[in-house]
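Renewal narrative, Specific Aim 1. Our central claim is that a sequence can be written position by position from structural information alone. The example that follows is taken directly from our test logs and has not been curated for this report. It begins with the structure tokens describing the chain, in the order in which they were read.
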């Protein structure tokens, strides 16, 4: 479980950092902010989904609900770390979560199953 967590954490940080860079946040501080925000939100999401998997409960809809619920929290954390307003960071936060949700599905379907 630790290896899968670390791998998914690294991939999530990388994907979400790219989204922030595309929005024009290109400083070293942005890299740290992305990692810190994920250090708070990712363990909760990962452990919760792991618990659902152990109980043999489908995780697709709970994952979508959790990703949507985390958008304002991540935007708030980013606004505090980057010194921007919450309103400015809601769209990047939403796209960060969407990208980190869709990327593994896209990579699995397009790269490994040709």
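The sequence written for that structure reads:
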């Amino acid at each position: 479980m630790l290896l899968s967590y670390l791998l998914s954490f690294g991939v999530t940080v990388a994907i979400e950092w790219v989204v922030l860079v595309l929005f024009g946040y290109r400083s070293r501080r942005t890299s740290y902010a992305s990692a810190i925000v994920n250090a708070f939100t990712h363990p909760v999401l990962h452990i919760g989904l792991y618990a659902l998997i152990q109980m043999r409960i489908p995780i697709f809809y709970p994952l979508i609900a959790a990703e949507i619920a985390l958008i304002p929290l991540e935007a708030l954390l980013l606004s505090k770390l980057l010194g921007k307003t919450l309103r400015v960071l809601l769209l990047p936060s939403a796209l960060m979560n969407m990208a980190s949700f869709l990327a593994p599905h896209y990579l699995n379907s397009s790269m490994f199953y040709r």
